[in-house]
Write a structure and sequence with these properties.
Elements lengths: L17 E7 L2 E6 L3 E6 L4 E5 L12 E7 L4 E11 L5 E9 L4 E6 L5 E2 L6 E3 L2 E8 L3 E8 L4 E5 L12 E7 L2 E9 L5 E8 L6 E7 L11 E6 L5 E5 L5 E2 L7 E9 L4 E10 L13 H4 L9 E6 H5 L8
Parallel strand pairs: 8-23
Antiparallel strand pairs: 1-2, 1-20, 2-3, 3-4, 5-6, 6-7, 7-8, 9-11, 10-11, 11-12, 12-13, 14-15, 15-16, 16-17, 18-19, 19-21, 21-22
Amino acid sequence: MECNELEFSLESPKKNRYYMLGCCNGLLLLVEPRECLILWNPSTRECQQLPVHPRLSNDALGNYGFGYDQYTDDFKVIIFDYFLNGHLEAQGNIHIYSLKSNTWKIICGIPQLLIDQSKSGILVDEFLYWSSISSGLGKWVLGFNLKSDKFEKIRPPNDIVEQCHSFLSLGLIGGCLSLGQNHNHYGGGLIIDIWNLVKDGQSWIKIMSIMNLDGLANPKCWVPYCILNNGEVLLTYLDTKTFLYGEDSRTLRLQIQLYDPVNGKLRPGILRDYRQAITYDVQTLVSPKVMCSIESSSTVQIETLEFTELYGKDWSVSF
């Protein structure tokens, strides 16, 4: 696999690392932790700093999404912010930013649910998806419609294995949302089952099962990422973080596994000397500055809503 080094420069008094939150239509969304959000076009090397919501906590950038709404020609940023209130109770807000209108929408009082923090929301067509778990629904998929700004619930496959230590990971395979489950097989050993979401958006079809994981170090931590052109499945390690280095960085190596569904065998692979391990195959001349309605004198608009008023108090309890 080939990784190319891309130059990135931004006037900043600090030499921080810039983490990638998502990519869409040739543009990358980056974050300088606790500082700012940045929209960057790697093709033109042009970037635009975005305003951070004033009520966003410093540690809120664990769950996020970045997508494009073709109907309104607008890019949107979604951030989930969880914190403890004065009574040590977990509370959460959802922050949705529209680049076109320079507006932050905050939805307060979201239900207690856990979202996979290992990657950003998976973008498929006009939806962003996250793997989620809640006490009322168990394991499920959370979807966000970029056109309507509405969240939706998607049941997991009927044949997933109910095991406490198994987890669901999302990816993009064949242009469809994919779901992988790494779990103990009833016949012994570990297995990864992979499903694709069909076009109706509510049902799944199993496309593959990956065996022979027991020879890997920490086999429960490997998840499917994508299928290569030669048919092999690329597996990545669960806690692998995707980021751009600052000037003080050192060269790292990202270990991967490649699974051949024809012979049922795994083989190791390594991405060497990478500055960014991402799926980026779209080039665009679109200017981040043009996409944003941000001027030096403009003030970001803030709209506040309540989750229960939009979805009802029992939204996360049942499908």
